Every structure is written in structure tokens, then in C-alpha cells.
Prior knowledge:
Blueprint: E1 33-36, E2 42-47, H1 53-61, H2 65-72, H3 81-88, E3 95-102, E4 105-115, E5 129-136, H4 145-159, E6 164-169, H5 174-181, E7 187-192, E8 195-201, H6 206-228, E9 232-236, H7 245-255, E10 261-265, E11 274-275, E12 278-281, H8 284-289, E13 296-299, H9 306-315, E14 320-323, H10 333-348, E15 352-354, E16 360-363, E17 370-373, E18 384-388, H11 391-403, E19 408-413, H12 422-431, E20 437-442, H13 448-459, E21 464-468, H14 489-499, E22 502-504, H15 507-519, E23 527-532, H16 535-547, E24 551-552, E25 556-557, H17 564-576, E26 582-587, H18 614-623, E27 630-634, H19 640-645, E28 656-657, H20 660-680, H21 694-704, E29 714-715, H22 718-726, E30 735-737, H23 741-751, E31 755-759, E32 773-777, H24 780-794, H25 797-800, E33 802-806, E34 812-821, E35 825-832, H26 835-838, E36 843-847, H27 852-860, H28 879-895, E37 899-909, E38 914-916, E39 919-923
Parallel strand pairs: 5-6, 9-10, 9-13, 10-12, 13-14, 14-15, 18-19, 18-20, 20-21, 21-22, 23-24, 23-25, 23-26, 26-27, 27-28
Antiparallel strand pairs: 1-2, 2-3, 3-4, 4-5, 6-8, 7-8, 11-12, 16-17, 16-19, 29-39, 30-33, 31-32, 31-33, 34-35, 34-37, 35-36, 37-38, 37-39
Amino acid sequence: xxxxxxxxxxxxxxxxxxxxxxxxxxxxxxxxxxxxxxxxxxxxxxxxxxxxxxxxxxxxxxxxxxxxxxxxxxxxxxxxxxxxxxxxxxxxxxxxxxxxxxxxxxxxxxxxxxxxxxxxxxxxxxxxxxxxxxxxxxxxxxxxxxxxxxxxxxxxxxxxxxxxxxxxxxxxxxxxxxxxxxxxxxxxxxxxxxxxxxxxxxxxxxxxxxxxxxxxxxxxxxxxxxxxxxxxxxxxxxxxxxxxxxxxxxxxxxxxxxxxxxxxxxxxxxxxxxxxxxxxxxxxxxxxxxxxxxxxxxxxxxxxxxxxxxxxxxxxxxxxxxxxxxxxxxxxxxxxxxxxxxxxxxxxxxxxxxxxxxxxxxxxxxxxxxxxxxxxxxxxxxxxxxxxxxxxxxxxxxxxxxxxxxxxxxxxxxxxxxxxxxxxxxxxxxxxxxxxxxxxxxxxxxxxxxxxxxxxxxxxxxxxxxxxxxxxxxxxxxxxxxxxxxxxxxxxxxxxxxxxxxxxxxxxxxxxxxxxxxxxxxxxxxxxxxxxxxxxxxxxxxxxxxxxxxxxxxxxxxxxxxxxxxxxxxxxxxxxxxxxxxxxxxxxxxxxxxxxxxxxxxxxxxxxxxxxxxxxxxxxxxxxxxxxxxxxxxxxxxxxxxxxxxxxxxxxxxxxxxxxxxxxxxxxxxxxxxxxxxxxxxxxxxxxxxxxxxxxxxxxxxxxxxxxxxxxxxxxxxxxxxxxxxxxxxxxxxxxxxxxxxxxxxxxxxxxxxxxxxxxxxxxxxxxxxxxxxxxxxxxxxxxxxxxxxxxxxxxxxxxxxxxxxxxxxxxxxxxxxxxxxxxxxxxxxxxxxxxxxxxxxxxxxxxxxxxxxxxxxxxxxxxxxxxxxxxxxxxxxxxxxxxxxxxxxxxxxxxxxxxxxxxxxxxxxxxxxxxxxxxxxxxxxxxxxxxxxxxxxxx
Length: 940
């Protein structure tokens, strides 16, 4: 591909003929980014500067003659001094160059030069196009480097007012043609003089965003695979003597049966060191010098020695790191900076990092069997993906699964999560064939928008269950170097609900729900059968099911003398019943005339030992095999849960619970998730209303929020707010000022009686309890008396700011809000006006843009929803009109990011139609959107 001033120059120039050698802008540090490549490795993208001359020459020498020919359309074996100057001196505006680096060395470059419509060199606003050219080192071709650079150089160009890229490519250079054609941008393509000419519009399209996110998914999943499925592991810091963190990790990996190569590394080792059969080396570079590679390094040295260990790993080509050392962000500002440097060092060498302060990672697959953690035993192989930010919670999860005969597929305890986070694991688990359900304990969000997007995509294929910790602390736990988003808990719940995430409150509930979802099929509905050998336990289960929102039938009591065959017959009948979606089996120790005395051992004719019933467990597993979920509630059967959930044996593996509320709570979550998933198969749509005037509304916003407006924004005058809302088809009922009784009468006569008289002073708005509203004023006499009473009780007109408004049809008073959370984005809220929403917090939330399904759910998900649907014989209100209004407000908030707050209060919803009586709109410079830009890893 040509460069505007390369050997084949469309402008006919052969030297540095840049249009004006104006003073360059300051170095744009915000253009720097770490990106995950197609193979899971990492490259650092940054602007090229004058200090890069040596790196550029070294890079160019490693590029093949063929690649150079494709770049310059002519043999070009070496760069001249003038070339090096041209390619390293940029003004970061009209001329920009970016490099992808690994280990500080260039592996690819891209450059654009601004041009006008005729393709001539241009500067500033005179040119909205640019010619772009790439060069990728041959050893790194096929890793997706050029695609990542295109995303970033396009974002830079848009920032500098460039709207189009042009490129000339030789037809034989099919890889580069594919980079452009696969990017998803609107493009035009032509062929002339033996060259393919491409013209790309740089405005992101739905296709380009989808392409970027698909690449992100594949790359980040691959980067996790490199960490969780290594073929070789080195433990750095393993000592000669037993004990110590490094030696413990080495022992756990070896004892767990790791199927790959294992090395011990310690700088104090001598030649031919051997630790219990594991070869020892002084450094990872010694391993590489023998021609052997290390996929994963577990770093267990003190924090002060970690940088050298990581640098050695980078030079030796290690692919990923687990850093268990503490002494980073959890210790304060100095530790936080030390942590950032650690991440920069690891990523600079192309490595992902779990930790620091990590508990470790596990993979129970027979082909891997990796226990690179501080867990002393290898867990059972299971189908659950586990992620936690806390080592102690990780221990609790693994222990809880073990006691119930279950285990994880893979487990990551990320510690300070300086690099790898739950978002990365979601990318991996979505397509992991060994994982059926995902369990996550989260204490902080680094990127809530991305989490919502990834969780929704994963939940469409397999359940995602989350405990969100640190709800009320107002900050993130020590060591979690992420922005303090302070997302309200209600917004978190909305984010989870809309994404199909099952949110639970405790680690116990996390395990309860996870086991059910991993071991049993999803219920088709909420109809529940209950059977067992304890009438009291059955009744408790029935009550718990009703409380959880399920529809149970009357419990079937088999009596305490029921034999396993009785359980099997009853369970078989219940599962065959088309009116049953799920079954709960309750079990206590069987009581028969031949039962052993308390404390005795042995069995009599199949009667179980006290605290165990293996025959019943095996019988239930065989009878439960099918397409409906079965769970067991048991008391005084200590080993029953492990027998029911253990791998192997005949029949289904059954989740077992020690309390009815835990069992039916998990079933209720599974039923709600199943309903969400069924709806996700046919997602709602974001409607397009023909009467919306988006361009005119955007112009209104530019006029009302001029450059230089205060960061906190401006609250619009009532007339301006009403005009802006009208652009989106939202009509606010007109209210006329009434500074005196005569003005009030004149206003009423222009509107028509009956009218309402309202005080609009800020301290009286939305406070009907203070008496600032007078309704149904039928004539002038009523209005004058009401005016006199209002001003006598609450103050003069100048203080009350009274208005006159036409009466609205009777209905239910509701409130609609839209606001922008800096982390989660725009949120749409709905509730009933007054005490239900303000005192009781009965509000429902959805993230914007809302679909028609979201709007319908929003209306029905508040606790007071029955008031909208004819409660106690009242006439139902027009929920169709209400849903349309919600969708219009959602579109307003989505289309105009400067609209940071909207409040319609009250919205009176009548049996036919609705009326918006008051509206408040606030404009402000919008928070930066990071989810629509080029792919980049966060560095907090």
C-alpha cells in the first residue's frame, strides 16, 4: 500500500513535503492503549515520535522484501534518513503515526496524512480525508495487529475531524484488502491502473461495532485460554525446603496431577536442582535457553523481586502470569503505582496477568488438571466456572462445592484484578464446552457497560449467577484499583436483570443456585410438585414456594415409613404430569419397626444407618433422569447431599439443600432465568417513531448548551424543556403563570375551565402534602377563592410562583425519569408518583435504549403495578400509551447524550391516554463513552 510521500507518491513528491511544518501538538498520551490480539497475546499501541528512529529502522530491517514491496509498490530495501525523519516526526493532527509494540519493539506501524477532496495534502478544516498505510512485520502477520491498528487510527482521525480514509492496495496484497473490507465501515471500492482503491467512511456503523466486539470476544477468550489451559508451568519462588508460598504452590500443582511440564525457579538453585522430581532452574530464561517454553508463570516472590521475575518471563516468551505476591494497591498510593508498573511491564511483554495478591487458578479438565492455587486439594471435576475477587470467598466456594460432591470446571481468584477481570472470564466461559454455568463474586466494577453487554451474551447461552459485594461501603475494597463508580444498588439490579444475570445476596445462595443450574435442566414454568416422607417439611416447602413466587400443588406425604420404591413411584408420577414443571423431594431418616436403635451401626433389610441413606439417594438419582428439574430438601441426613451430587453412578446428579427456602429460592431463580432466556430468543426492538425530530432536537441542545457551559450543566426553563420534549413527541400540558388573581382568571379563561392552580416554587414541587395544589376549579369564583387561600397559607405570589393549568382526565399519577450514570450509562426509571417511589423506593429501572419488551416489563415490575391494571375493580389505565411514552423518553436519552436528566412528574395515566403535567430537563457535557471506541484494556 502506498504512502502519500513514499516511493510511489500520488502527489509526485519524494521527500518530506508536508504542507506546513507547523508546531506539533503535545504528545497525545490518551492515544496509548493495550490491546489483546487474535492469538491472545498483547500489544501496546502508541503514537510514534522522534525518539523512535532507531526502533523504526530495526523494525524495517525485519520486514520481508515482499511486505516492503506491498507497502511502497516498489523494491525498497532500506529507509533513508529522510524517510526515517518523515515517519517519526508528526504533528499529531494532519500527520499521525501509530506503532504496535511488544517488549518495547515495533511489530507494526500505521500512518495517515490529511488530504482534501482532490487528494492533495491539506491542513486542519481544509481536509476531511486522509490517506492511510500499514506495515506489519512478517512474524506478526495473522495476529490481527493491522485490524487493531485500523480501529485506533480511525478513532484518532475522527478526533481530529477526519471523516474518510483512502488507501491504494495491490491486488496481490489480499491480507490488507481483507483488513479494510472486514472492518465493517461503509466503503467504496474501485480498480484502476492495477491498483485497488478503497474509500472508507469512519463513522462507526452497527456492523463495524459488531465486528470490533466479535474480535474482542475471540481475542480475550483466547488470552484466558492461554492462562487456564497451559502446557507448561513454572513456579517462580519455589524454595528448597517444604513450606512457604512458592513451595506450596509447586506441591499443589504436582499433587493435582498437572498433565503438562512443571518447573521450579529460584535464583539460588544450582545446576541440576530437583525438588521432588520437579526440575529446578535459576531463571525462566534458563528454561528457554534449553529450547523449552513456559506458557504460565506463577510468581511467588516478594513484591520487590516481582519486576525482575516478570521481565525475565517476558524475555523468555512466557504467555501469562499469576502473581500471588501482596504489597500492591491494598497497601496505599505507593503500592497502587507499583501495581500499575507491574501491569505495564507484563503487557509490554505481551502477557496477561492474574493478580497481584491472587489466590490462584484451577482447571479440573482431565486433559489439564491444573491446581495453581493455594487450595490444598484438587477439587472434583465439575461444570461451574467460578470467579472471585476475594481469596477467602474462593476458599468458601471451593469448600462448599466439595461438601456437596461438586466442583468447578475452572476457577480464578483474581486478587487485586489489576489486569484480568470478570469480563475477561465471561468472554472465555461463553464458548467453553466444559462450563455449563458461571458463578461470580464481584466487589467492584471496572467497566459496567461492558459487563452488562458480555453478561447478556453469555446468559443467552448459559446461566450467570452473581453476588455483588461491597454494596454499602461507598468505595471499593482495598487493592481494587478501579474507578469508584458509586452505582446505586437499584441500577446494579437493573443492569443485571436486563442482562439476564441471576443476582443473589449471599455466597450460600450463589452455590445453591449454581448447583441447580449446572446439574439440572431449566424449568419450563413455575408449577411445582412437592413430595416426601415428612408432612411438616412438605408444608414448610409449600409455604416457601408461595413466598418465592412459585405455584406449588399440595404436598404429597409418603409417610415416614416410605421405602425408596415409594419415593421412586411418586417421583415418576410427578415428572410425568404435564401440569408440573419441577419437583421438590423432601427427605428425613426413614422410620420403620425394624430400624436400628439410635447410635447403632449396620443395617437391617435395607434400613439405612443414622445420618445416611445410600439406597434412597441412588433410587432418587435414577428416577429423576429427565427434562424436568428435581431438587431435594433433607434433614438429619449428613452425607445425603454428597451422594446425590457426586459424579459417576447411574441417573441424574441432584442438588440437595438443608432448608426448604434455599431449595425453592434456587428453583424460583431458575424459573425466572428460563423465562428471560425464552424471551431473549425473540428480543424486543427499539421502535422508530416517524414524528421524532432528532436533528432539530440536537440543534436545540447545541443552542441551549453552548461551548463553555458549566460542567454541572444547566436546568432548562419550562418552555425550553417542553419544546425539546415535543421534538420527541412528548407533550407537556401548558401551564400559564399567575402572578396575581386577575392574571390567574385571564389564564383560566384562555385555557378553559375546569382548571388547577399550582404553586411551582422548588420547595413545593411534587409535594401535594403541603397543600400547594388546588384542583377542579370550575369557574372564576372558585379560582379567586383558591388563590386567596393558597397565598394566605403558603406565602405571596413571588414566593409561590403559581400557575394555572387545564385539568387532566382522572387516572393514576406516575413518574418517569431518565438519568445518566457515568459508569452504567443512561438509565430509564418508572414508578408511581409520590410516596410509593419517594418513600418506599418502588421504582423499576432499565438501561437505555429500552426495547418494547423492556418498556412492558418496566410498567409491570413495580410492586404497585396492580393499581395500573384494575385493582379492586377500578378501570385499568392505558398502559399502551404509558409504554410508548417510556420508549420516547428512552430514545431522547439515547440520541442526545447531553440530556443527562429528565423527570416527568406527574404523568397522569387515564383509562384512555395520558397527560404529562410537569417536566424538568437538565443538559450537561456528556460523560465520555468508552464502550464504542477501539478495543483497549483498562489500566486503573
